[in-house]
Amino acid sequence: MSLVPTTDPVPVDKLGPTHFIGLGGAGMSGIARVLLQSGVEVSGSDARDSETLRELEQMGAHVHVGHAAENLGRAETLVVSSAIREDNPELAEARRRGLRVLPRAAALGALLLDREGVAVSGTHGKTTTTSMVAVVLQHLGADPGYVIGGKLVTTGLGADAGIGGPFVVEADESDGSFLMLTPKIAVVTNVEADHLDNYSDLEEIHDNFASFVDRVEHTLVVGIDDPGARKVAELARERGKRVLTYGEDGSADYRVDGIRARGFTTEFTLHTADNDPIVGQLAVPGLHNVLNAAAAVVVADELGHDLDVAVEGIADFAGAARRFELKGEGGGVGVYDSYAHHPTEIEADLHATRAALDSLGEEAPDLGGGRVVAVFQPHLYSRTRFFADEFAAALDLADQVVVMEVYAAREDPEPGVTGELITSRIDREGVWYVPGREQVVRKAAELARPGDIVLTMGAGDVTELGPHIVEALAEAAESGEDARG
């Protein structure tokens, strides 16, 4: 892969009939949904059928399973993701016919052209923060549009056009596609090294964020605790942008403290120069989620809404799909799923889980002693190779660790790069490399005991294992065995 060439967005009313390759994907389906709501004729294809395709078909999209040149029909615009190869028959036909071909991000940028655009960027926390902004604005009575890389628990949707309010989207830095967005307000949660299959180093990532700063029309909202994001804030001020900061740091314009885990909920206090301290409640665990919530509240305040009501609204956030999502409970063991696929994200989720279990023990001693069983699927051979040591250090925070085989995604296998590259760097008992999916389910159920949490983590199909682990745990409990076998 490489960085996507920047393409200027086209106004929605100029797109004409629009065809999507990979229509069932989270990113593509959300844009297609909003275009359908906006009156655009939409068609699309995907390699396999899905519930998402059928939902779009019910909304009026022309849906095809499998890729073929004739699927383009009367399309005038083709939307593609960076994963689509040039030899795809639909892309080849679009080139032959001279159709407008837009990267996914340019189609997303079109949705911001006539709205108050809010774009959430950063190495970690984009989906959660975008979701929180949408939920807070809904609580405030606005009707925001949004396109999110996961589904909101509150609405069951990953995208919606809204009516007249701001439009909130994720700004993806992974392939440089955020340089096709021109938001009024942008959030930068943090900036770290990642996606080194696209970028040569962290310096190049910072260069791209500098270019993103230039595209922001008015305000940068920046997580000041993160060194990389702090550099972005300094640069933005030098370039004359309005900058608002949030974090635990004493210099933050919106400072959070008093962070306390209460089971799997979190309490915090927000301080600003112009307001009395405001106590907030969050229905998800972790310092990282408190910081994401602070970013959402800053955006609402900058859009002119009441700050106290915005903080109140964050309590409505019930989570987003794959972001510490409860998959079920079996045999007294809770099973959660997380999209964490970078060492920093894994560390944050494991700290949050540990704090939640400890707080449960404080409030109900008979519930104390629960352990964290981490099931991790590395995502991409390149990322596994680059960050093997960091993955090992992060996973070492769990009591029991199961590492699966690498999820290849868009890459070809690399000799010597397997999940064992990570487990071999954790020098203690309680660590297993288990390549097979069925064996992973059995191992997780074998390790867990009542009061524990099993947390599946990764950006691949590890997300499918949660229900199977719940079932295995329940079967063990019903058979009279404890979950350890």
Automatic annotation (TrEMBL):
Occurrences of domain Mur ligase C-terminal (ranges): 322-460
Enzyme Commission number(s) of this protein: 6.3.2.8
Positions of ATP binding: 122-128
Chief location: cytoplasm
Top EC class, one word: ligase
Keyword set, alphabetical order: ATP-binding, Cell cycle, Cell division, Cell shape, Cell wall biogenesis/degradation, Cytoplasm, Ligase, Nucleotide-binding, Peptidoglycan synthesis
Pathway connected to this protein: Cell wall biogenesis; peptidoglycan biosynthesis
Keyword GTP-binding: no
GO terms for biological process, alphabetical: cell division; cell wall organization; peptidoglycan biosynthetic process; regulation of cell shape
GO cellular component, one term: cytoplasm
Residues annotated as domain Mur ligase N-terminal catalytic: 18-113
Catalytic activity field: UDP-N-acetyl-alpha-D-muramate + L-alanine + ATP = UDP-N-acetyl-alpha-D-muramoyl-L-alanine + ADP + phosphate + H(+)
Positions of the Mur ligase central domain: 120-300
GO terms, molecular function: ATP binding; UDP-N-acetylmuramate-L-alanine ligase activity
SUPFAM superfamilies named among the record's database cross-references: MurCD N-terminal domain, MurD-like peptide ligases, catalytic domain, MurD-like peptide ligases, peptide-binding domain
Tagged with keyword Cell cycle: yes
Database matches in Pfam families: Mur_ligase, Mur_ligase_C, Mur_ligase_M
Compartments reported by the entry: Cytoplasm
Family to which the UniProt record says this protein belongs: Belongs to the MurCDEF family.
PANTHER family registered for this protein in UniProt: UDP-N-ACETYLMURAMATE--L-ALANINE LIGASE, UDP-N-ACETYLMURAMATE--L-ALANINE LIGASE-RELATED
Main function: Cell wall formation.
Protein name (Swiss-Prot/TrEMBL): UDP-N-acetylmuramate--L-alanine ligase
Gene that produces this protein: murC
